Amino acid sequence: LGWNYFGRVDRITKIKGKRISLDQIETFLQINNPTVDDLAVVSYPKDGDYEIGCMIISDSPIENLKSLWEKEIPNSHIPKKIVFVSSIPKLPNGKTNYLSVLRDLI
Q1: Residue pLDDT, tens place only, 21-58
Q2: Cα gap 43→14, rounded to integer Å
Q3: Closest by alpha carbon to 13, among 31, 29, 26?
Q4: If you write DSSP's letter for every residue of 49-93 in order, what string do you get?
Q5: Portion of the chain with pLDDT greater than 70, in percent
Q6: What is the DSSP string of 5-18?
Q7: Buried b / exposed e across 44-71, counting CB within 10 Å, b at 16+?
Q8: H or E stretch including 25?
Q9: Can you give the pTM of this predicted structure?
Q10: Which H/E stretch holds residue 43?
Q11: Which residues make beta-bridge pairs with 55?
């Protein structure tokens, strides 16, 4: 019998040597943006490191959201790739399907 390692379950990623909780970023962005209806934050590999991306449902232009985020959170926590959608992929139980979000962002 052997152990198979399938990765982390707690949605923590390491970007430029810093551990970042994707759930905390997601919660912060939802709570502090009244124009955001829903969003999903994921990390994806880029140039030997990871970057943060998000799918978002919002009526607010991206410039307004980014300027607000830049005032409140570190640059490493701001999603680099942002895709506006009409709905976030969900699992049958109603939770966010992060694998589908990741596939759609890459």
Answers
A1: 999 888 888 887 888 899 999 999 888 888 999 999 98
A2: 9
A3: 26
A4: EEEEEEEEEESS-HHHHHHHHHHHS-GGGS-SEEEE-SS--B-TT
A5: 94
A6: ----SS-EEEETTE
A7: beeeeebbbbbbbebeeeeeebeeebee
A8: helix 22-31
A9: 0.81
A10: strand 36-46
A11: 40, 83
Tokens standing for 6? 């399938």
Which tokens hold the place of 59? 């009526």
Distances (CA, A) of 57 to 12, 48, 49, 50: 23, 29, 27, 23
Q: What are phi and psi of 57, to 5 degrees?
A: -115, 110
